[in-house]
């Protein structure tokens, strides 16, 4: 017998794209995540910030199925995930992770043909569409070593879009880029956000976070300390630790 929520999700009307319920992650005696409770609605743009070592990357890697959890449940579109990543989630990494021996086009069609079972013709069509979206069609036959860091990140974004995800994760996608390239890549991500894609993004770029975020999550020592709309969080955070983080961060800008 199916419950009401199962039927609603099956029909495509699931309220939450991602749910983390009492999620904990432990490495030996060290706790990376502690009692995480978080829901991300369909179409919501969630920005996660916090100091280094606060558990931000561990959290989104767990959502992507790249990191096992010690306790709790993670659901994507209402379905619990385990050690097998959900094909509804994809991730853009800080350091691109392109296959150096494959052309840009082959980097983009590899996963769709193998995991989504798309024909090569359909995968190529999608790849060219998303390369066009990120302004990289003229580089389709190049290899990663021939590209700049900014171009590689554009390709990495296109590669994730080729997987047709319901949820797109970004782990500090501009941290390795120079200021102008960073600006261009952030504009691409902003355009994707406007399309209605559910997004969870780790970033320290305040102006970018204010532009795209529906909510900001602040983490410290593996815990969620504060959740607030961006205008409240960046102008009047409620928790002293969040205020201290912002004061330190802004002093280095």
From TrEMBL:
GO molecular function: ABC-type amino acid transporter activity; ATP binding; ATP hydrolysis activity
Species name: Vibrio aquimaris
One GO CC term on file: plasma membrane
Keyword Magnesium: no
Domain ABC transporter: 18-246
Keywords: ATP-binding, Nucleotide-binding, Plasmid, Transport
Top-level taxon of origin: Bacteria
Family (UniProt): Belongs to the ABC transporter superfamily.
Keyword hit for Nucleotide-binding: yes
A Pfam family matched in the record: ABC_tran
Record protein name field: Glutamine transport ATP-binding protein GlnQ
InterPro entries: AAA+_ATPase, ABC_ATPase_HisP-typ, ABC_transporter-like_ATP-bd, ABC_transporter-like_CS, MetN_ABC_transporter-like, P-loop_NTPase
Places the protein is found: Cell inner membrane
Signal sequence, renumbered to the chain: none
Record membrane topology: Peripheral membrane protein
């Amino acid at each position: 017998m199916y419950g009401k929520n199962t039927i609603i999700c099956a029909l495509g009307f699931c309220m939450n794209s991602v749910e983390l319920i009492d999620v904990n992650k432990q490495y030996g005696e060290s706790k990376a995540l502690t009692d995480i409770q978080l829901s991300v609605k369909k179409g919501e743009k969630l920005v996660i910030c916090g100091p280094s070592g606060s558990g931000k990357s561990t959290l989104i890697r767990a959502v992507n199925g790249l990191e096992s959890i010690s306790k709790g449940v993670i659901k994507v579109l209402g379905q619990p995930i385990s050690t097998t990543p959900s094909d509804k989630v994809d991730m853009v990494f800080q350091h691109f992770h392109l296959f150096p021996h494959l052309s840009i086009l082959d980097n983009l069609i590899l996963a769709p043909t193998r995991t989504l079972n798309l024909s090569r013709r359909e995968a190529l069509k999608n790849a060219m569409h998303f390369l066009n979206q990120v302004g990289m069609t003229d580089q389709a036959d190049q290899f990663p070593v021939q590209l700049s860091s900014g171009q590689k990140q554009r390709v990495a974004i296109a590669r994730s879009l080729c997987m047709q995800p319901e949820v797109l994760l970004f782990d500090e996608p501009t941290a390795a880029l120079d200021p102008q390239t960073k600006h261009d890549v952030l504009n691409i991500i902003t355009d994707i956000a406007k399309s209605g894609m559910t997004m969870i993004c780790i970033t320290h770029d305040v102006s970018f976070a204010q532009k795209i975020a529906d909510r900001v999550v602040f983490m410290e020592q593996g815990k969620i300390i504060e959740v607030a709309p961006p205008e409240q969080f960046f102008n009047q955070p409620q928790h002293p630790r969040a205020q201290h983080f912002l004061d330190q961060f802004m002093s280095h800008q």
